[in-house]
UniProtKB/TrEMBL annotation:
Name the record gives this protein: Copper amine oxidase-like N-terminal domain-containing protein
Pfam families named among the record's database cross-references: Cu_amine_oxidN1 (PF07833)
Species the sequence originates in: Paenibacillus auburnensis
Lineage summary: Bacteria, Bacillati, Bacillota, Bacilli, Bacillales
UniProt domain Copper amine oxidase-like N-terminal: residue ranges: 46-148
InterPro entries for the chain: Cu_amine_oxidase-like_N, Mao_N_sf
């Protein structure tokens, strides 16, 4: 099975844009100073799935650095995040290494070697969420690898993987709850949809609505209702909800847009997304 997964990953990386070091800035094609609400400027690709941050939690680019919501990202990769109420700052601990003193408006942080160093971009508080430059936060980690991965529709995603076979320590079993498992039958049919935006709105009477916008990443026209979408929405308490959809509603050419709506009982912190053709 591991051999099969490696084959899948090898096929997914159609155009390797750049192998970047942990301290190197991301430069996705649609980089902007603030990004649009819900726009997935650089969707993360972890364990053969896209990881998306909805609405106000969507990462954005500042001074050529990818700014990530610190709490949601910590949950995704299994890092430990602790809050110092006296200093009003966070400590990010990951696989035996840590960065402390992460605070809105403060450029420097204390790294695992005890030395204070600049992050390159000051962390920012936006709508109650702290965003930090993740490449700077992870630069001391010897166990994680970042890569930019391009595709045929000129979009870029950020691949996160462990170095030399290291498995990322997700703190929750969400990855095991993803309902879609790749088989030899779907080997050449996975991920025809590339996620570009994920918005989230409260629904009158309770719950939330997720609106996912995608582009056709397949080298052929997608027929009506020819694609299966499977998602896992994870809330701020770590509870998850499996979701499934069929689309698109009409035939869609390569790079053509489609949108999908899903209802969830609680506000999602992040969403794991996969798709495959029937």
């Amino acid at each position: 099975m591991n051999h099969f997964v490696h084959r899948v990953r090898a096929l997914l990386i159609l155009i390797l844009v750049a192998a970047i070091g942990a301290g190197t800035a991301f430069t996705p094609a649609r980089a902007s100073a603030a990004g649009n609400r819900g726009e997935q400027l650089l969707p993360l690709f972890i364990n053969d799935s896209y990881v998306l941050f909805p609405g106000k939690l969507a990462p954005y680019i500042k001074d050529n650095k990818l700014m990530m919501p610190i709490r949601a990202f910590s949950d995704v990769i299994g890092a430990k995040l602790t809050y110092n109420s006296t200093e009003k700052s966070y400590t990010f601990s990951f696989m035996g290494q840590s960065v402390s003193g992460l605070k809105a408006g403060v450029m420097n942080a204390v790294f695992d070697n005890g030395l204070e160093a600049p992050l390159g971009v000051k962390p920012e508080m936006k709508e109650g969420t702290l965003f930090v430059p993740m490449s700077s936060v992870l630069e001391t980690s010897k166990s994680i690898r970042w890569e930019n991965m391009g595709n045929r529709i000129n979009k870029v995603s950020g691949v996160i993987d462990g170095r030399r076979g290291v498995i990322l320590p997700q703190s929750t079993p969400v990855q095991l709850q993803v309902p879609f498992v790749y088989t030899t039958e779907t080997f050449n049919q996975f991920h025809p949809l590339f996620p570009v935006r994920l918005n989230q709105t409260a629904v009158t009477g309770g719950g939330y609505k997720l609106l996912l916008e995608t582009l056709n990443n397949a080298p052929f026209i997608l027929g009506k209702n020819s694609v299966v979408l499977e998602l896992v929405a994870v809330d701020f308490k770590g509870s998850s909800k499996a979701l499934k959809g069929i689309g698109p509603e009409v035939k869609t050419v390569t790079a053509g847009a489609s949108s999908f709506t899903f209802n969830v009982p609680t506000e999602a912190e992040y969403v794991i997304f996969r798709s495959h053709t029937k």
